[in-house]
Structures are given as structure tokens and as C-alpha cells.
Amino acid sequence: MKAFTVSKAVTALMLAGLVLLPLYSQLSGNVFILTLFTRIVILALAAASLNLIMGFGGMMSFGHAAYLGIGGYAVGMLAQEGVGSGWIQFPVALAASAIYALVIGALSLRTRGVYFIMITLAFAQMAYYVASGLARYGGDDGLTVYKRSDFSGLINLSNRTQFYYLCLACLFGVMLLIWRIVNSRFGLVVQGLRSNEQRMQAIGFPAKRYQLVCFVISGTMCGLAGALLANNTDFVSPAVMYWTRSGDLMVMVILGGMGTLFGPVMGAVVFLLLEEFLSQITEYWALIMGPLLLLIVLFGRGGIMGVLGRAGRG
Amino acid sequence: MAEPLLRVEKLVRRFGGIVATDNVSLDVASGELHAIIGPNGAGKTTLISQLTGHLEPHSGSVSLAGRDITYLPAYRRCALGLARSFQITSLLLDFTAADNVALAAQAHAGTSFRFFANARKEKGLRDAAHAALDRVGLAHRADVPVSKLSHGERRQIELAVALASKPKLLLLDEPMAGLGVTESQGMVKLLQELRKEVSIVLVEHDMPAVFALADRISVLVYGRVIASGDPAAIRANDEVKRAYLGDQHVVTHHG
């Protein structure tokens, strides 16, 4: 039954590449590539979390970058106040993201369609301006994290390889969780609501309750990405919450394939590598990147995973 | 007389100046198949929507087995044993037939806030789904996505979904809509079987089917019930003939 397909092969290749990357970096002495891929893995986690509500749940959130900021600021603010332990910072980052998601979700889910997109965007922009106003924590300029989260000898986040593997483990953990959720009772209800809300209500499911829980799970996952990102850059600023970042996450999801398990990871890898290499070639890289993305979205229905799936059959 | 399963009392629903449901009262006894007929625009779907909770009435009440459900949301009514099919097929198109039906069973089998176990491997739900599909004669199509099924098959899935929730009362909104002659006959046969197990409110345009199936018929015209009684009485009723059946010779000659 488990037939060999092109998309499976490419996915396996990508995952193997991610696991073996530090080895390559060590052997070739290319440190930069490890730094780059740490960022890619973290944003892939964020994209995967967005895919849970956007791809599987049909909730087009345009404010997902807010969680990157909330997770990041939780780490940065606690570090500033002298709480350096990751055992405190990370749970606080997750809890803060969950609470934000609960409030924003409860309000936003009263709307549908374009209104939902606009209201999630508006809330994220509010978070952005709140962060800009935090004078004690750097305001507009952002906040430098002088010391990475301390996991008391268990793992050293300042070691590049260890930190990379921590991020990768978080990504794989979240993917595993999403895979289980998507096939669970809860996951089927959420996907059913994406497909036909009226029908789901008629067979006895209160829509909002399930969507809100899904929204909170997704936000919490992205908060984890935020906490990792602040450690990666040793810095957090309001800019990580800006709407263009939310847009980037959406593009990664759509590019890789909405509603597929590995699509968002693939999307993040391709998007960020393109961004990196095009920006090395020319200052006007966005001029090439934009049309390229447009072409993929217009002609590659289902994103990269969709194209690979068709290639496998064709 | 025992408490009716469904009691509708003086239900009123307006859309602007139009009274779509005008003081409608009707009872459905347990085990009964009660048909609601009426010309286009008589307010049949408006009435059904108020019974299922998709639309709120402006006044009047609806009660199920003695319990007032007038303002309960749709999902709560479903939990009390009210299931419906839609006039325009409303299914989860990207799910398989079995998934569609299993979800209906899942809604009535414990909490759905379970996040880890694979729901497609829950034997109880799958068995219930296959039983319901088998009931409507579609067991062999269980693993086909609904988007790939024919219109007739989708109508049958609608019924299987409603059955899977083990309802006390089935509200069927034009189950024959868009079916061919053979398919319609199959559906009549199926409903004849189902009525032995569950009470049914049937809204239908297909007159031969209605007269073949119904214990009682209520005739709706301009939002009002102008007559209610067994098929023979309805067929003989002058007001009904004038308002509705006048040119439907086929009915008077049938059966």
C-alpha cells in the first residue's frame, strides 16, 4: 500500500539533509550554512504551526508572526530581569502565546472569511505597536538577549550544533504532534469544519469550540518557534511581529502545499534559501522573488507538494 | 393520546414584510411518517430550518419529546435525537463516504477532544459507518471521496449520515430532489424500510412518493397549514385541490 512516490522521496531526502547538515558543516568548515539552516528550521516550525489552522482548519490567520514576537519577548524580558533559566523562559513563552491565542481566537472566530484575515492582522499589528512602546525593553530598537536560555548543563544553546539539533528536535516533535492531531477525532472535526461548517453543525458539532482549541494549539507551537528565534539571533524586536513576516509565513505554507504535513517545511526551506541566494546576487532580489512566487502559486496548484504529487503519477 | 414526538405550536417567521411561516402548528407522533407538501415558495424549507435550528422563529414553539427546543442551537438538537438531510446536498466533499458517516457517529459517541489516537482506526465508529452505508446500499463505495460520487449516491449518503446519529426523528428535506426515476423508486423503497425504525418528517415535491409513504400529510400554502390529514382525506380536500393539486392529475390517478 505504501507506494513509492516522488513526493515521499523528496521529503525523505529533505529530512535526511536536515539531520546530516551539521556533519556537512563540520567537514566543509562552512559555519554559515549551519546558522542559516538553524533559522530555516525555526521558521519551518512556525510555518508548520500556521499550516495547522490555515491548511487543515481553513482559518486564514494573517497575524501568525505575533507569536514569534510573544515567544521571543518572553525569553528576552525574562533574561533582562535576570531569569536566565530555560526551564522558566520556555514554559512562560508557550503559556503567553497560548493565552494570547485564546483571547484573539475567541474574538476573531466570531468572523469568517476576509473579516477573519483582517481581524487577525489587526491584532498582530496591535501587538507590534505594544512591543514598540515597551521603553524598558528597548522599544522600537528591540531587546538584546545577552545570554541564551540556560538549560542547566543538559544542553548548551550557545553551541551551534547543539542548538541546531534542539531546533530540529522541536520541529520534528511538532510535526509528529500535528500528524497525530490531524488524524485524531479532533483533527477530523476541524477538517470537517473547513470543508462544510453547516453540515458539521447539523450532525452535532459546535464549530467555534473546536476551532478555538485548534487556534490555541497552533499559536502555542508558534510561540515555541519565537522562543527559539530569540535565542538564535540573541535579539528580539517588534519587527519580528510586523505583518510582512506574517505574510512570509503564509507564503511558505502556500508555496510548500497547504494542508499537507511536510509542505510547510519544504516551503520554508525553498523560500528562505531563495531569499538568501537571490539577495547575494542582487540588491533587487525581491524583484525576482516576487514573480517567481507568483508563478508557483498561479501554476503550481497545491504548492510544491502538489506538483511533486502530480509528477509522481504522471 | 400520548405526548407527540414533535410538537410545533403557532410558529411564526417573517422575512421583511413576507410571513414565510404563518402560525404553523403540527404534531408528529412517534413512529409516524408525516409529509409536508406545498407549492414552491410555500415556506417548507423555512419551516424545516426552524425545526433543525438553522433559523430562529419570531414566535411560537417547537418541542421534541416534551422538551422545548425552540431556541436550541442545531448541534444541541442533534444530540437530542434530531437529524436532518439537506435539500441541496451538503456533505464533506473532500472526505470519503465512510468518513462522512463516521463523523456523524463520532458526534454521538463520546468526546471529540481526543488528539492522539487515529480516529479512522476506531472500530466502533467505522462499524457504525459501514452499517449505515450498508443500510442505504452504498457499502461498496465506502472509501470513495464524496466528490467522486454521483448525485444519486450523494443523496443516499445524506441519508446514511442522518441515520448514523441514531436519531429519534429524521427531517428529510426533499430526499428525491434531482433523482432519476429508478433512483427515486429506490429511495421510496429505502424510506419504506426506514420508517419502521424511526419517525420521519418528509418534505417532498414528488407526489406519488408522498402519497405512497405518508401516514399523514400537512399542506402548506403561503406559510399556512391549510389542511392536515391522512392521504385519502388530503386527496379529497377541495381547498387543497384548488390551491395545489388542481393540475396534478397524476396524483388523483395514482394508487
How would you characterize the overall build of this protein?
The complex is a heterodimer of chains A (314) and B (255). With 314 residues, chain A is mainly α. Helices cover 75% and strands 1% of the residues of chain A. Chain A is built from 13 helices and 2 strands; from the N terminus they run αααααβααααβαααα. Chain A has a two-stranded antiparallel sheet. In chain A, helix 10 (243-256) crosses helix 11, helix 10 (243-256) runs parallel beside helix 13 and helix 11 (263-281) packs antiparallel against helix 12 (285-299). Chain B is of the alpha/beta class and 255 residues long. Chain B is 36% helix and 24% strand. Chain B has 10 helices and 10 strands. Chain B has helices at 44-52, 74-79, 97-106, 123-135, 151-164, 181-194, 207-213, 231-236, 238-245, 249-253; strands spanning 6-15, 18-28, 33-37, 59-64, 67-68, 82-85, 169-173, 199-203, 216-221, 224-229. Chain B has a 6-stranded mixed β-sheet with strand order 6-7-8-3-9-10, sandwiched between helices. In chain B, helix 3 crosses helix 4 (123-135), helix 3 runs parallel beside helix 5 (151-164) and helix 4 crosses helix 5 (151-164). Chain B is globular and about 55 Å long. Chain A binds chain B through residues 180-181, 183-189, 191-192, 195-196, 198-206, 210, 213, and chain B through 52, 54, 73-75, 78-79, 83-84, 86, 90-95, 99, 103-104, 106-108, 111-120, 122, 161, 165.
